[in-house]
């Protein structure tokens, strides 16, 4: 019989697991990892034309910049048509680790929804299994984030950040919100892994067992 068990700690862990997975996915896809030095289009003039300075941005495989000389807006899209065209080998490796970690988090987020009804997988606690997977995902994300700055010496980054750019030195560039979101999400992943233990304790408490013995199928506890 399926017992739907909802506690504050298990629900918080489920919600946090989903939020973290989405945060890492959005950060991975964003072109806002590096913000280039300010640029202006001196050839653009006229009423209603935006000729002010702007900062191009560069992501793992995408970028945002103004194309053309007619004062068009900033255009965003992938700069790499294939995996081999990614800015550097370090970024390729970083993408693999970040993608693997995000994929694991996505799977855990889906499983966490079903944890309201199923608390075990092959006689193993679903919370302990998911907590272990989240810790592994966190390590994958950490490796990816450490590899990412090593690619700042590539020709693509130099074009955005100036000739002084080198590994772990972005020169005239500044870090965008996507990089900070990835770091924050990684820290939150380890928090999820720790909190999964509390979710397991909450759903296997004596109060929950008493509710099950009374024949209740929907159990809600603080």
Instruction: Please tally the β strands and state the result.
Output: 9
Compute the separation of the termini in Å: 23 Å
Mean pLDDT: 85
Query: What is the succession of H and E elements?
Result: EHEEEEHEEHHEHHE
Strand order, sheet with most strands: 5-4-3-2-8
Structural class: alpha+beta
Oligomer: single chain
Low-confidence stretches: 43-50
Alpha carbon gyration radius: 23 Å
What is the number of helical segments per DSSP (H or I, 4+ residues)?
A: 6
Summary of the model, kept short:
The protein is an alpha+beta fold and 222 residues long. 50% of the residues lie in helices and 13% in strands.
Structural notes for this entry:
This protein has 222 residues and is of the alpha+beta class. The protein is built from 6 helices and 9 strands. Strand 4 and strand 5 (74-78) form a beta hairpin. The model is unreliable at 43-50 (pLDDT under 50).
List the helices and strands and how they pair.
Elements: E1 4-7, H1 8-29, E2 34-35, E3 57-58, E4 62-66, E5 74-78, H2 89-114, E6 120-121, E7 124-125, H3 126-147, H4 155-161, E8 174-175, H5 177-203, H6 206-213, E9 218-221
Features:
single chain; 222 residues; alpha+beta; five-stranded antiparallel β-sheet; two-stranded parallel ribbon; 6 helices; 13% strand; elongated
